[in-house]
């Protein structure tokens, strides 16, 4: 067969050749198989910093529109990318050569480098720039504006439309700065009012252009405003303020419901704006969000919100001395503002640190912050801010400020919570007990150094009626509760192994309940929604009951006071339970524990609250605990009403009642056929209940498991 015929035959069976598609994207986008906007340089290459690799094959390059010649009237081109619609500022609107600060911004926002770390890549670039002539990092590419997703502008506008009108805002701000802000003192009223004024001056046209057309503080301010208003709504009286009734848009809607919506709107704005331009306002909004969640009974979510606020604070360097405050001028007014900004930043980190320590110890969670004296300067005890005057040290003769109370609490006791947490996480080893002794002695010594106006016993009341100090009596009781909580937490890990710690923890718990009783007497029903009156009382009651249930023949001299304090504390929780779901849940648990305790002590179930309590105990009554032989309780066949001799209580983990209540869904369910103590304000219970059964996801072998196996 001839070659020609072979070729003809082969060609007859050859598949038709596919027409080669023309490559119209740039070579880099074609290699990465991603969409190209056909500009030069294209959006994808700019975003990835690959402008030198952006070119087109053939002669198409000359016909491509340049990045600096957009046909749109606003000289801006919108391009679809994997992350949605982004807006690109053309070169004609920015410098053809990126500035040094623009390069730094790109490294911070696009690559995530910290602006406060001098040892990362950004820090190295800064050091190079001081030694040599500057050459731009980004190779002359166009600056990418603050890229926002398609629809973000509209969503932002929809959220800020939920803000009430200014007259309602002013009413709620009065409540916030009178009833709420003194508890944290991290929002300066003068600065806040200036920010509110700036937000009120934002034009509709600026709002239409989106949040990234606003300054960083102004764009996130609505989130802070929402959280402030939500806090104020928690403090509305049960009957409500008639002036605020128009804010409710549905029948049977409460101010708490409205507060939930406002707080969620603030959280949505924070999440929508992201973490690229974190400011002090972002941190303030995050802390108030955590506080609102905590008061609403969402403790797990509050802990995570606090962690987010801590990370935001670290992002802008609040945990270090390296605080750069930009000043556009050196006028006295600007310098005063800068000094107060620095003061408030230090205060914010201290408050975040104290919150983090407290929640870590209360909930048994890890600590996310530290406060190293070599890298952080504690804020001073300054007078209340006045316009035009910088931070001025307060003297003993000057009226106290809310932050003076916070600072006193840190110096007296809170600084030791990190040691308490470490001992607990290390397993409460006996070899570490010397630390307990040292910290206990240090706290008691520090208590004696408190100024007279905040003495825990017999304080000087000279400032209580001073204008602007209406908060002082409540703050004093709060300080007392917190100091004694640290002592309780210090000894709590050892209550199952060291008798001395049982006594010291018991005494601290009694002091907490006394302070809480005085604070409750000062409070009104509108204060019952917040967490302050629930957490400390619940922890103290559970610890007292646990000590007397497990060691009934110890600390007899405190028994009458303990039973009375438990009854009064339970009564308070029952009263607050009508307004506060946390208090209602805690009330059921402590009611069940009291039922266990009275059976354990074989005390008459007297209804006369003033009746004397018998301090003698009946003969031991065996209590069978049907656990498997391999369980931790297998070492003891019974538990009697005497001090346990053959039972190893050290196997118990330290008590964390608040953690169990929220993380392990601790609750109590009444059983039948007996009567219990009648409290003045009862929740709905079965009056014929024989006892209470604890339910939850707590592990077998926990304190709550043991309580369920007590026979009555």
TrEMBL record:
It is found in: Nucleus. Transmembrane segments: none annotated. Signal peptide: none annotated. It comes from the Eukaryota. GO terms for biological process: DNA-templated transcription. InterPro entries: Sec_Metabolite_Reg, XnlR_reg_dom, Zn2-C6_fun-type_DNA-bd_sf, Zn2Cys6_DnaBD. Keywords: Metal-binding, Nucleus. Residues 25-56 form the Zn(2)-C6 fungal-type domain. Residues 67-82 have a biased composition (Polar residues). It holds the Pfam family Fungal_trans. GO terms for cellular component: nucleus. Its main location: nucleus. This is Zn(2)-C6 fungal-type domain-containing protein. It comes from Lipomyces starkeyi NRRL Y-11557.
